[in-house]
Write a structure and sequence with these properties.
Elements (H helix, E strand, L loop, with lengths): L14 E8 L5 E11 L6 E11 L10 E6 L7 E10 L3
Parallel strand pairs: 3-5
Antiparallel strand pairs: 1-2, 1-4, 2-3, 4-5
């Protein structure tokens, strides 16, 4: 009998950090992701922003919080991330 090596592969956890810009929906938060790059010719900083929806099961995060989200399976049509940790509370 031939035995196979049955070690499981562990996937890399994808974490993203953003600021909560909307908390009006139940168990859903909209966070703003910003990336800054230097323009190659003009040498001025460019800011690109992207908004994504994350799942917040306990409605813990509030408007203005800086949060960490982890990528998961699709939870709805728009949600592909869930809240992992609140890094900084809004004042």
């Amino acid at each position: 009998m031939i035995m196979e090596n049955t070690t499981k592969r562990t996937a890399k956890v994808r974490l993203i950090q953003g600021r909560v810009v909307s908390d009006t929906m139940d168990k859903t938060r909209v966070i703003l992701l910003e990336s800054r790059k230097m323009h190659p010719l003009i040498k001025k900083p460019l800011v690109k922003s992207h908004r994504i929806k994350i799942h917040d099961a306990k409605n813990e995060s509030k408007l203005g919080d800086v949060v960490l989200a982890v990528e998961t399976r699709p939870l709805s049509r728009d949600k592909r991330h869930r809240l992992f940790k609140i890094l900084e509370k809004a004042e």
